[in-house]
Design goal:
Elements (H helix, E strand, L loop, with lengths): L4 H4 L1 H8 L5 H38 L2 H43 L6 H25 L5 H25 L3 H41 L1
Helix pairs in contact: 2-6, 3-4, 3-5, 4-7, 5-6, 6-7
Protein name: YIP1 family protein
Subcellular location: Membrane
GO cellular component, one term: membrane
């Protein structure tokens, strides 16, 4: 049960883990997680590429078309794990720098290293339980309720993480996450607005060309 100790007794276990902060270990944990996700996506692309390749090759009576599309699909098995590993490490690195910065504004005395390391420690146990919860979802009636309870507990774990890593009260740790959500929402609006503006511009340019 030691593997799940950080989920069962999060505050106590995280406080113990702070004595052995290792950023390089955290990099590897996030990279492995990203690589596994990338491999799954790569396999999906490979299967999809094979199906499309067979369909396209049969429709055009051209085996080269099948070879090209299927080849691109299988190439994804190699590229996606590497790409996702890099993206996961970089995005996590940036995100927990932001977490540490906001926590300091609220009086925290933690560091990026502490936030990043504890997040990496939580990662694998959370994934295992989330897989179990995915299966539990299939249970009629109670599956959804159990998943809701687990979701709320996951939120609590993330609050405890920020609280322990930055020596903040639970209340201030909640504020950190609220600020992060607000910032994320605003950035999302800006990105959506930029995409919409680009789309409108492209449509307008196309209309002008036709006229």
């Amino acid at each position: 049960m030691e593997f799940f100790e950080i989920l069962i007794h999060p505050k106590e276990r995280m406080e113990q883990e702070l004595r052995n902060v290792d950023v390089n270990w955290a990099h590897k944990r996030f990279a492995i997680y990203g690589a596994v996700i990338g491999l799954l996506f790569g396999l999906m692309f490979a299967v999809l590429g094979g199906i499309i390749g067979v369909a396209a090759g049969g429709a055009t009576q051209n085996s080269d078309v099948f070879g090209l599309i299927a080849g691109l699909g299988f190439l994804a098995i190699i590229i996606m794990p590497i790409l996702m590993a890099l993206l996961t490490v970089i995005s996590s690195y940036i995100f927990y720098h932001i977490v540490a910065f906001i926590a300091k504004l609220l009086g925290g005395n933690g560091s990026f290293d502490a936030n990043y390391f504890l997040a990496a420690k939580l990662l694998l146990p959370l994934i295992v339980v989330n897989i179990i919860m995915f299966i539990v979802t299939m249970i009629p009636y109670i599956g959804g309720i159990i998943n809701l309870v687990w979701f709320l507990y996951t939120v609590y774990l993330m609050v405890v993480l920020v609280s322990v890593a930055n020596a903040l009260s639970l209340g201030k740790a909640i504020v950190v996450w609220v600020i992060l959500m607000i910032v994320g929402f605003i950035l999302g609006l800006f990105m959506a607005g930029a995409m919409l503006a680009s789309l409108i511009g492209a449509v307008g340019a196309g209309t002008t060309t036709l006229n």
